[in-house]
């Protein structure tokens, strides 16, 4: 890949076209300055973070950002966009990691943050009615103040919105008990690509679930009615050690299929387990622990505070030596002791959750080693840390990303092995297993790599994703579980939804006949596959 350093910024906004837009929402609610356009240039897709580190900040500059306050204003914005053939891109808090909010040079980003009101709580029917621009933590704080919970706790809780959860079919850390976001939603209110406003209901459940996960390609979700539950009054957490991943996966399957429903069920692979146990004071001495101590400050993991404060001071030379030979590092990790850490937690009210926890801990104790409550509560205390640790990795010269996939229980271990094998020569890779269901489970891979220079880094990053997702689809698994699709996985949607393109085309022709809503997301242009669906503006001829 050759980077064109002479690429001009996006066209200067056409102020004549924007006059009408300003009449709709007011002058102060149409942003056109370069700092504003850069701020809405991208979400947290690591590919764009790599570009930013390379001082390329204009990769997807929108023409303008508009900040409506009412559905009527959104409807007028849509009709303006139809007339001007202008793409519209919904934007919540910008915490997505799949490029779902990337604009085009002549596009307009629609910032939904003003739709941030919790409208009502029905304490008798356990229902919440809210606008969708509300930040997840603010929503949960108010619910808990009134004695309830949504039960949705993604690691991005502090910097993501209800609308983003719905748009991407998000899963929180307690999904095994409460379900994913699509299991919690009862109805939504939508502004379509023709400017029409409607509310889904029980008689249109298929329409509801078509919009949930559509990532703004069919309409703007403005409000949602969600199921809520009473706030938990008791917590029971434990850690268990298993001889190997296969034994731990089997214990997870037996547990879930027996009807037990923990809030948290989280299995770490060998390397991540060693770090987690050492942090919780449960590690054993020996060469394995010394290896972990040597490398943990270089690597992003899902365990507690894993990146040392001085990571930014690590020289690029050291990074290059360690992460520039990922196959060697992965081979060393494969030689580590195979013990794996399983974190399990129950939350609820009264004797029922206490009894369920006891039965589960007894079951796991017969299959593994009970490490006590320490590792479980340690995870609970630090469970949000990882989302705020990755920036240090970029400053230190590496790149890091995560990939969540899912499959049936019978294929879970082989999926894990296949993906590791596919990318082991490219990046250092680790994983944890979470979001467990009766029929299968998700795997959350984390990989980190290092290359000298922007061009080589982008090439390596692209190749890693291509190898990994091809390994997923060849394993018969799903390439997306809870981060959404965006641009990063759109070229692989055809593998998850064989024959689904005609259905998506019907939805688009019905709800977005003018093709103005978030183009290129979820499904790429016809005939485009794999990472070829990614933006290629920076490639010189």
Ordered list of secondary-structure elements with their pairings:
Layout: H1 15-25, E1 30-31, H2 34-39, H3 46-53, E2 64-66, H4 71-84, E3 88-91, E4 108-111, E5 118-122, E6 127-131, H5 136-145, E7 148-149, H6 162-168, H7 175-178, H8 181-184, E8 185-192, E9 197-199, H9 205-211, E10 219-227, E11 229-230, E12 234-242, H10 245-257, E13 264-268, H11 270-279, H12 287-295, H13 316-323, H14 326-334, E14 340-348, H15 350-365, E15 369-370, H16 374-382, H17 390-395, E16 399-408, H18 412-423, E17 428-436, E18 440-449, H19 454-474, H20 493-496, H21 501-511
Parallel strand pairs: 2-4, 3-4
Antiparallel strand pairs: 1-2, 5-6, 6-10, 7-11, 8-9, 8-10, 12-14, 12-15, 13-14, 13-17, 16-18, 17-18
Helix pairs in contact: 1-4, 3-19, 11-12, 18-19
Ends apart, CA distance between termini = 10 Å
Integer-rounded radius of gyration? 23 Å
In CATH, the homologous superfamily of the domain at 234-474 goes by the name FAD-linked oxidase, cap domain/gating helix
The biggest beta sheet is recorded as: 7 strands, antiparallel
CATH topology of the domain at 234-474: Vanillyl-alcohol Oxidase, Chain A, domain 3
Q: What's the shape?
A: globular
Task: Briefly note the structural class of the backbone.
Answer: alpha+beta
| CATH-defined architecture of the domain at 234-474 | 3-Layer(aba) Sandwich
Low-confidence stretches: 297-319
């Amino acid at each position: 890949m050759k980077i064109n350093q002479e690429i001009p910024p996006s066209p200067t906004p056409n102020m004549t076209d924007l006059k009408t837009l300003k009449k709709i929402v007011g002058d102060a609610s149409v942003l056109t300055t370069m700092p504003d356009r850069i701020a809405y240039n991208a979400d947290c897709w690591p590919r764009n973070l790599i570009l930013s580190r390379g001082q390329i900040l204009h990769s997807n500059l929108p023409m303008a950002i508009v900040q409506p306050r009412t559905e009527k204003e959104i409807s007028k914005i849509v009709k303006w966009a139809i007339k001007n053939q202008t793409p519209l891109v919904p934007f919540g808090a910008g915490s997505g990691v799949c490029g779902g909010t990337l604009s085009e040079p002549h596009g307009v980003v629609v910032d939904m943050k003003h739709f941030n009101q919790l409208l009502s709580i029905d304490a008798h029917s356990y229902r919440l009615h809210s606008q969708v621009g509300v930040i997840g933590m603010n929503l949960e704080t108010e619910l808990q103040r009134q004695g309830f919970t949504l039960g949705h706790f993604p690691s991005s809780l502090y910097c993501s919105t209800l609308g983003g959860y719905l748009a991407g079919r998000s899963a929180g850390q307690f999904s095994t008990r409460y379900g994913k976001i699509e299991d919690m939603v009862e109805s939504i209110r939508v502004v379509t690509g023709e400017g029409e406003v409607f509310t889904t209901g029980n008689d249109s459940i298929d329409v509801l679930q078509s919009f949930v996960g559509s990532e703004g390609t069919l309409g703007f979700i403005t409000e949602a009615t969600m199921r809520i539950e009473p706030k938990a009054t008791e917590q029971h957490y434990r850690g268990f050690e298993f001889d190997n991943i296969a034994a731990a996966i089997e214990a997870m399957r037996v547990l879930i299929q027996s009807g037990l429903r923990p809030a948290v069920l989280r299995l770490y692979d060998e390397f991540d387990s060693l770090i987690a146990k050492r942090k919780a004071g449960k590690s054993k001495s020996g060469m394995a622990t010394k290896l972990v101590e040597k490398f943990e400050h270089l690597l992003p993991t899902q365990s507690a505070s894993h990146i040392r404060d001085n990571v930014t001071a690590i020289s690029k030379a050291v990074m290059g030596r360690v992460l520039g030979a990922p196959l060697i590092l992965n081979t060393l990790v494969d030689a580590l002791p195979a013990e794996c850490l399983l974190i399990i937690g129950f939350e609820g009210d009264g004797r029922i959750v206490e009894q369920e926890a006891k039965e589960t801990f007894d079951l796991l104790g017969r299959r593994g080693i009970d490490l006590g409550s320490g590792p479980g509560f340690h995870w609970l205390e630090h469970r949000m840390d990882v989302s705020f640790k990755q920036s240090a990795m970029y400053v230190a010269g590496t790149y890091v990303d995560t990939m969540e996939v899912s499959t049936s229980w019978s294929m879970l271990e082989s999926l894990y092995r296949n993906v590791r094998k596919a990318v082991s020569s490219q990046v250092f890779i680790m994983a944890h297993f979470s979001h467990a269901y009766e029929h299968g489970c998700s795997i959350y891979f984390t990989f980190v790599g290092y290359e000298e220079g922007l061009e080589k880094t982008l090439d390596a990053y692209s190749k890693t994703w291509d190898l990994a997702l091809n390994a997923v689809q060849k394993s018969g698994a799903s390439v997306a579980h809870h981060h959404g699709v965006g641009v990063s996985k759109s070229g692989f949607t055809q593998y998850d939804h064989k024959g689904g393109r005609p259905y998506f085309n019907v939805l688009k022709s019905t709800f977005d006949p003018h093709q103005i809503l978030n183009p290129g997301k979820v499904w790429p242009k016809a005939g485009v596959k794999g990472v070829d669906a990614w933006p290629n503006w920076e490639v010189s001829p």
